[in-house]
């Protein structure tokens, strides 16, 4: 029920970037047909909502390295888009990503557990609903000043409060001091797939009960209910 990759217990939406050494071969994400989604126009907004990436890879010795970075999606570059981010130059991830044949970027969120007593039918067991996206491509490292500045500005915009007057033009000198200390990366995507586990295995009444319970819950649960409503008309139903 949960992803094959460990879920970071983060705020409403999360991303995980997994990069494997050159000899490794990564299997495609397991997603039964009723849950599978391969439409980039439905998956792009999810990537853009998740933003923060948990970056995991194996270094040249096979040790696992994990970092956390904001991920920016450029929909206009390539048929499936391009992912953009940057690392602290001291981070060993720079070398690992530069030598990897393929990067796998997993985005997870929103998600929520479902209590058995929410259903109108029995027997039931607890389960988990979630939205996940997995993207693949080979990374290119970015070290030129113009490319690095673009990466930093794009990532900075993700963190701005609505209506914030901040502009990169006002901090050029400060940014010029930062750029030598980072390394950027771009990942043109050659595969994009998603999994939408939104209670499709239940009948209409039970799905409605789950949605109502989530709508009355925490912020995370309300976001899960919103996802159920958002995709309701497009979901293949198993029940």
UniProtKB/TrEMBL annotation:
Pfam family, one: FMN_bind_2
Domain of life: Bacteria
Protein name: Transcriptional repressor of sporulation and degradative enzyme production
InterPro entries: Split_barrel_FMN-bd, TR_PAI2-type
SUPFAM superfamilies found in the cross-reference section: FMN-binding split barrel
Taxonomic classification: Bacteria, Pseudomonadati, Pseudomonadota, Alphaproteobacteria, Acetobacterales
